[in-house]
Structures are given as C-alpha cells and as structure tokens.
C-alpha cells in the first residue's frame, strides 16, 4: 500500500464504502494508530456498525491489530456473535483489562461469551473482589435480573442530606456507575425505601433530608425476575432505572433503561420470528445455522399440511365430479388463513403487552369473532358474486359463500383463542400459535367448502 489513509475529518465524512476500504487498507498496513483514532472519533455504536460490515477475516484482523487497544465502549456495542468473535481473538490479558473498565453488567455479558477453561483464566486476572461479584452474576439464570443488573449504584441512608449525598458521590466517584439517574434511599438493613432523581437533588438545598424528598418505587424487581417482566415494568412506568433486590429484600444492584432497550428489541424480534416459525435470522448466520433454525418448523408444517390434505382426500369423489371445486378451494383456504393470521398477530402483541388479562381476554374473543362475522359476510358476498359470474352456477356460488362465512368466523375465533389457551397452559403463544391456527383454518376451510358441496351439489 503506497499511502496510509488520513484520519482527517473530511476523510471520516466519506461514504461508508470508502471508509470500509480505508479501514481495510490501514489494517493491511498494520497502522494501529490510524485504526484506533478513526474508531475513537466515531460514536461507539457507529464504530461497531463499521466493524460489523467488514468481511469476517478483516474483522478478526482488525481486532487482532488493536488487541488491548480496542475501546471497550466499542466492544460492548458489538452484536453478540461479533463480540464473541472479537473476544476469541483477544488475549486473556486484553479481555481482563476490558472487563476491568466495564460496569459489572457489561462485564458479565463479555464473560458469557467464554468457554469454561478460558473463563477461569480471565477471572484469575481480576482482583478477588471483582471476581466474586462477576461470579455471583454468572450464577443467576441467563434472562434474569441477576444477569442484567450492575452492582455499581449510589445508595444513601434516609437521614442523609442532599449535601452529604453529593459530597459522598464526589469522594467515591471511581466506584459509581458510568451512567445513573437516581439515588436510592435505604434503611439500616439496606432495603430500598424510595428514590431521589438527580434532577431533584441538584435543585434542592444542601440541608434537605433525602427522606423528605424521596418518591416511592413503582417497580418490584428481584434477582430472579425474568427480563420480559422487567421490560414490561420499564415500559409501564416509564422508568429510567430500577433497583434489584435479593431474596431478603436488600438492594444489591440496579438495571438501567439502556439495557432494557436491548431486551425489548430482543423480545420483540423473538416474537416476530416465532410468528414466522423461525428461531434465528441474523445476518452472520451460516447456511447450516439457518437450516437448523428453520428445518424443525418446516417439518412440523409438513405434518399439518398432510392433515389438511387428509381432509381433502375425504372428498376425493366430490372433487372428481366437480372440477370447479378444485379451482375455488385455494380461495377459501387463503382468505381464511390470512384472517386467522391477522387475529393471531393482534392477540400475540396484546398478550405481550399484558392487554389480555381477565375480562379483557373475553372481550377480545368476542371482538375478533364478531370481526370474523362482518368480514365473512363482506367477502362471502364478493366471492359468491365472482363465482356466479365465472361458473354461472347459483348453488356453487351459495356453497362457497356459506363456506367463506364459516371459515372467517372460525378464523377470527381460533386466531384469538389459540394463543390465549396456550398462554394459560404455560406455552409461549408467539412460538406455537401459528402452526395450530393455520392448521385449524385450513381444515375448516376445506371441510366446510367440500362438505357443503357434497351435500348441496351432489
């Protein structure tokens, strides 16, 4: 390479394609200073996006070139699979240094990427106190508050004043989290009593007692609380952060909204993929990983497809005598399936948002069923009219109209009832519902249409 790229502002403002080329050239030239300064000049999220656009070999070469100089803010912003690759390239000492600079929640996320042998080696590089904290975090369930929380927080007794709290924070600045929004007020047993917003603290007089200005907690999070429940509380109460308690109700950590944004995105993505019967859809997935994620669901759908085919086979004689039925069958099944999918999408979202509790669930079943009735009448009339014009057979038009109405009512009913029933028995509605709903709507569509045709037309 004849010339090392210039890290000037004009250069950094170039289009991503050019910046990618410049970055790869600098890595090939071994210009660690340019690579580091360029990445540090960007927001960590933008820098992580830039690294993730590199080919896998160039990505690993970049991480290897930077080594311990890879900014920890960028490392933690990388998506899980890229962070795993980066950590694998880094030395044990570099990983330990990065963990030492991170808040405990982010450090736990990095340690999760390590196998057991390497985890022990990295933990051996840490101070005993830091190691104990991180090992305790790793003992909690993967999607629990214990894994998500950070151990760094600012707590103060209720009898402290604003001035004492501020002075304490200044004296122990190195022990505070990178970002925090509230001061937790605790009793002598370290049980949280309330909180004081930083904005309130800065406005109050120094001699004001925390007990006189603290507000009650809206959240209730223990170390065992699942991340989906935590995300729901953050959304419901518009929280910026929330304390985490141990089994005895003592304050041991906090969760901040930046972590919850990732959790909410993750949960929404999982539900969206589950509705399509896909468990993974990441751009870095290999062909084999994609096959493993999708093939099982396709196998289940194959079984349900044969169930629908069995219904059709029951009316083989009817189809042999009336070829028009074979032409119209897909119309009934397709419309009923789409109607069921619409109701299912509404139901899964409402369940995730806790909008289907108690009487709300019963109202939803009635609403979706009535929606199916109205839509059924509309499309039954339309399909019947088209069939009449096409085949000039009044009885055939009547059969498909009645079958369409029945299928729409059934689709609306099953689209809402199936996920509610699955939730009641403890299954995940987002994962399992679509298979059952589509099977039910297909079988009803074929059975009602072909059954009515057998009774009326033959």
Give an overview in words.
This protein has 23 helices and five strands. The protein is mainly alpha-helical and 458 residues long. The chain starts with 8 loop residues before the first helix and ends with a helix. The strands form two sheets. The chain has a three-stranded mixed sheet. The chain has a two-stranded antiparallel sheet with strand order 4-5. α20 (323-352) runs antiparallel to α23 (429-457). It folds into three domains: 9-145, Alpha Horseshoe (MgtE N-terminal fold); 155-274, CBS-domain, CATH 3.10.580.10; 287-457, Orthogonal Bundle (Tetracycline Repressor, domain 2).
Which helices and strands occur, and which strands form pairs?
Elements (H helix, E strand, L loop, with lengths): L8 H4 L3 H14 L2 H9 L3 H9 L3 H11 L5 H6 L2 H10 L2 H10 L2 H8 L4 H9 L3 H11 L6 H4 L6 E3 L4 H10 L10 E5 L5 E6 H6 L6 H4 L13 H11 L3 E5 L5 E6 H19 L11 H28 L1 H6 L1 H30 L6 H33 L2 H31 L4 H29 L1
Parallel strand pairs: 1-2
Antiparallel strand pairs: 2-3, 4-5
Q: Domains counted in the coordinates: how many? A: 3
Q: What spatial form do the alpha-carbon principal axes imply?
A: elongated
List the secondary-structure elements in sequence, H or E. Answer: HHHHHHHHHHHHEHEEHHHEEHHHHHHH
Rg, alpha carbons: 30 Å
């Amino acid at each position: 390479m004849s010339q090392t790229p210039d890290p000037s502002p004009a250069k950094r403002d170039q289009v991503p394609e050019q910046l990618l080329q410049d970055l790869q050239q600098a890595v090939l030239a071994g210009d660690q200073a340019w690579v580091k300064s360029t990445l540090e000049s960007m927001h960590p999220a933008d820098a992580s996006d830039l690294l993730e656009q590199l080919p896998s070999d160039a990505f690993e070469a970049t991480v290897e070139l930077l080594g311990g100089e890879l900014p920890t803010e960028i490392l933690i912003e990388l998506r899980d699979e890229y962070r795993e690759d980066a950590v694998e390239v880094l030395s044990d000492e570099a990983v330990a240094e990065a963990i030492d600079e991170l808040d405990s929640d982010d450090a736990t996320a990095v340690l999760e990427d390590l196998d057991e042998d390497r985890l022990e080696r990295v933990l051996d590089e840490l101070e005993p106190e830091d190691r104990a904290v991180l090992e305790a975090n790793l003992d909690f369930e993967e999607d629990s508050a214990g894994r998500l929380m950070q151990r760094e927080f600012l707590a103060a007794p209720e009898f402290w004043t604003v001035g004492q709290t501020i002075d304490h924070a200044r004296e122990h600045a190195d022990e505070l989290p990178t970002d925090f929004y509230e001061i937790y007020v605790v009793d002598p047993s370290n049980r949280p009593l309330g909180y004081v917003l930083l904005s309130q603290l800065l406005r109050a007089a120094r001699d004001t007692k925390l007990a006189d200005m603290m507000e009650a907690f809206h959240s209730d999070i223990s170390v065992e609380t699942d991340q989906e429940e935590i995300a729901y509380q953050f959304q419901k109460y518009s929280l910026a952060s929330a304390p985490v308690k141990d089994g005895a109700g003592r304050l041991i950590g906090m969760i901040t909204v930046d972590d919850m944004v990732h959790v909410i995105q993750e949960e929404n993505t999982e539900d969206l993929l589950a509705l399509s019967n896909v468990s993974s859809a990441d751009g870095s997935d290999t062909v084999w990983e994609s096959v493993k994620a999708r093939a099982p669901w396709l196998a289940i759908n194959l079984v349900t497809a044969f169930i629908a085919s069995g219904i059709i086979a029951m009316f083989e004689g009817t189809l042999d005598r009336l070829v028009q039925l074979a032409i119209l069958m897909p119309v009934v099944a397709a419309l009923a399936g789409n109607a069921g999918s619409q109701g299912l999408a509404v139901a899964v979202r409402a369940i995730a948002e806790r909008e289907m509790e108690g009487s709300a669930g019963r109202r939803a079943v009635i609403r979706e069923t009535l929606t199916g009735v109205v839509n059924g009448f509309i499309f039954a009339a339309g399909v019947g009219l088209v069939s009449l014009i096409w085949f000039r057979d009044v009885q055939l038009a009547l059969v498909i109209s009645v079958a369409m109405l029945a299928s729409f009512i059934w689709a609306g009913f099953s689209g809402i009832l199936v996920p509610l029933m699955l939730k009641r028995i403890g299954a995940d509605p987002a994962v399992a519902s679509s298979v059952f709903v589509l099977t039910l709507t297909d079988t009803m569509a074929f059975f009602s249409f072909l059954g009515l045709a057998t009774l009326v037309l033959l």
